[in-house]
Specification:
The chain is mostly helical and 364 residues long. It contains 15 helices and no strands.
């Protein structure tokens, strides 16, 4: 509901893109430092702090009444979202290295359930009450999340002597490699698609077609449910197919569904297109996070995940920003065609430059 809320306040698609892109600024700048800090002090403390910021951001978005305050509030929620680094690594620490795919699949599924529930309920609450009620509800659930997280346990596996002998620059130099950079580029392309379409301008496109807030919320929720299913599929796909087969077909699925979306104005068809695109996003999201952890040592997992999530934030930033500019210059439909081009780049990089490491290559 946020894109529509921002549109109602500012009245400019370009401003909508600029404000939505603010979500990625804090993540782009802070996820690497957060990853370094998490490897040093542990993941639980930073996870709790991120949840508190998320609750505060919900309230600030509610009281914002101009573009500047909306931009600052959205930036704060982006800072809170940087907590995805310690949260995901904390969750993976409860699994053995052989179950990396399973851990990343499950955490993406859990995240998708939250997004699904919030998006669908948000559409209903916004239509029945108003958008402010949605922000208040988000704040309450943030506090509940904080209480639940406070009961979690952290098993510290990092050698304190190793952490003391490495300064942040040395840690980054040791962690960064060509394969990680390639994974980051693919992730940036994936999140460009996500934040320019389903989290960006698809709500505005559907509103243009005359959809109610409930239908818009359902469409986004349906796509998020598909992402949940896609994440669930990853371990099963990895047991049956080779890495190139998985990534090639997944990208083709996202490319075709994105390409067809602006061609039709049939609401039901658009909903199903976004469902299948969501499956692709779920598979790729879990796959890339799994690859990041597989290629990381125990003492640098949070740093590697911080680097990955920081650099894929480039796509989160560029997606809504460039889409807003293009939509204001041409039309909303144009953003889908640009997203297709970005997806094609992501597909070729993931096939040609990303090493699947432990993924077996003797499969179909």
């Amino acid at each position: 509901m946020l894109p529509i809320h921002v549109t109602n306040i500012t009245g400019s698609l370009e401003t909508v893109g600029f404000i939505l892109s603010a979500y990625a600024i804090a993540q782009l700048l802070l996820r690497i430092p957060i990853g370094l800090l998490a490897d040093r002090v542990g993941n639980k403390k930073l996870s709790l702090f991120a949840i508190l910021l998320s609750s505060l951001g919900s309230i600030l978005l509610m009281i914002s009444n101009n573009a500047n305050s909306l931009f600052l509030s959205r930036t704060l929620t982006g800072l809170a979202a940087a907590g995805w680094v310690p949260i995901s690594i904390l969750y993976s620490s409860y699994f053995t290295s052989e179950n990396t795919d399973k851990s990343m699949s499950e955490i993406v599924m859990i995240n998708s359930i939250g997004l699904l529930s919030a998006t669908y309920a948000g559409g209903i609450l916004a239509e029945k009450y108003d958008i402010n009620f949605v922000f208040i509800t988000a704040f309450i659930f943030g506090i509940i999340s904080f209480i639940c997280m406070s009961f979690s346990k952290e098993t510290k596996k990092i050698s304190s002597s190793i952490q003391r002998t490495q300064n942040p620059i040395q840690k980054l130099q040791k962690t960064i490699n060509k394969n990680l950079i390639a994974i980051c580029i693919v992730g940036s392309c994936l999140f460009y698609l996500t934040f320019s379409t389903i989290y960006g301008f698809i709500p505005i496109y559907l509103e243009k077609l005359g959809c109610s807030e409930t239908i818009i919320g359902f469409t986004i929720s349906f796509s998020l449910a598909a992402s949940l299913y896609g994440a669930y599929l990853l371990p099963k796909l990895n047991n049956q197919f080779s890495y190139p087969m998985i990534v090639c077909n997944t990208w083709l699925l996202m490319i075709l569904t994105t390409l067809i979306t602006p061609i039709t104005n049939h609401i039901v068809f658009i909903i199903f297109l976004q469902f299948f695109c969501g499956i692709g996003r779920g598979i790729m999201t879990a796959l890339l996070m799994s690859l990041v952890i597989r290629q990381s040592s125990i003492e640098s997992k949070s740093t590697s995940m911080g680097i990955y999530q920081s650099l894929y934030s480039v796509g989160m930033f560029a997606g809504p920003l460039m889409s807003g500019i293009i939509a204001s210059m041409t039309n909303v439909e144009s953003i889908f065609y640009l997203a297709v081009i970005i997806c094609i780049i992501g597909m070729f990089v993931s096939i040609l430059f990303v090493k699947p490491l432990e993924y077996k290559q003797n499969k179909i």
